[in-house]
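User: Could you check the structure of this?
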Amino acid sequence: MELTDLQAQRLAKLERLRAAGIDPYPPRAQRSHTIGAALDRFDALSAAASEVTLAGRIVGARRVMGRLAFAHIADEHGQIQLWLSRGDLGDAWFDRFRDELDTFDIVEASGVLRRTKSGEPSLFVTRLTVLAKALNPPPDKFHGLTDTEARLRERYLDLIVNDGTRAAFRTRSQVISVTRRVLEARGFIEVETPVLQPMYGGASARPFITHHNQLDQQLYLRVAVELYLKRLIVGGFERVYEIGRNFRNEGVDRTHNPEFTMMECYQAYADYHDMMALVEALFRELAEHIAGGTTIAYAGHTIDFGPPWARVSIVEALRDACGIDILQHRTLDALRDAIARANLRVEPQPGWARQVDELFSTLVQPHLIQPTFVIDHPVELSPLAKRRADQPALVERFEPVIAGMEVGNAFTELNDPLDQEQRFLEQGRAYDAGDGEAQPMDTDFLNALMYGMPPTGGLGIGIDRVAMLFSGQSSIREVIFFPHLRRRE
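Assistant: Sure, the predicted structure tokens are below.
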């Protein structure tokens, strides 16, 4: 490995430590308190003059002034100043601190807690140990680590230097834990289903394909967990959920990453109205737990999860937005003609259903700021959802939309195996017509339905997008630790 001048200087210091018989990477630490715990109990520990051992990374500049030296160390829980004197620490370690240690090194320090004359809580150090010598220097102290691509490629460095990044991921963790709590309080059990699947399905998406050598079998990384969870409903479990990774071979933008986390849950003897009630309860509890109330600020808006969510029909919303009644233009050519007559700038799509979705995503969705259920989608858009008994051209489906962003999908699940087979056949025709994201025929899932699945409500929530909302992030890449990036030469 070719070293920069700064790396070479740090390596030389490491070698001098080893020459002095000091292991710069010892196997264990002897920390007595986290920094946060020490600060919380500072007055009591200081009054007792108890020895405290802290560990953390040296952050900011080290300052040496004659026989005194100062530095700050930080761990996940807080930051504190180290106060070092040659008399207390001894010549050898005081000189090592001055000459061999650097910003970003991880150290262990023992001593007593006292305040300096200026009142700053500090650890007056009597013993110092190196826990990990950092060979890479911190980023430029003036500009910091602000380049977005650099932050994403070296997320570990981003986490070290940017408090806001760590805060966003703590919020993400809260989103997952609160979601589990809400579901389990309602009797759902958490399950796991295959990531490698012999047949992908449950969402309109292109899969990633791999090969199992022993079985000589083509397998797919799952695009959704829906069809396996519904098999469990067939098998007699009445409330199941899974939080896990899905993989879709698609583009990357501010709300899409090829690898992402979904929560899907299914409830027997329920419908999409029950799922709406669950979504309202989930987001209200998320807001109260994370934000301390029912409102959050996002993208310049105040989002209120307190009132019942608005309900907007996708058919009526499009009719109001552009004057096109999609149910009167049921072929792709007819719909494209209507779009052209209305002088609308909408990206062309390979099938009628995908063109409707593009029309809605362009003209309506960005303007839905407050929490909204977009309900009653055309059957062609929803191959796994149950038709409305009073309007067979529509299905009992909704998408929750917040701040112009779709955060999930839900149905009254289709449990008629004969209707489901016809939907799969229609998807096959769409695939042959050029829709590479159409869903394939899954004969094993049909076989499961033929044993009988009770009326069921199903819901999927995009964990990453919910984390975006509650952490105030505008890009999904800011709430995924290691997002996919173009390979750097």
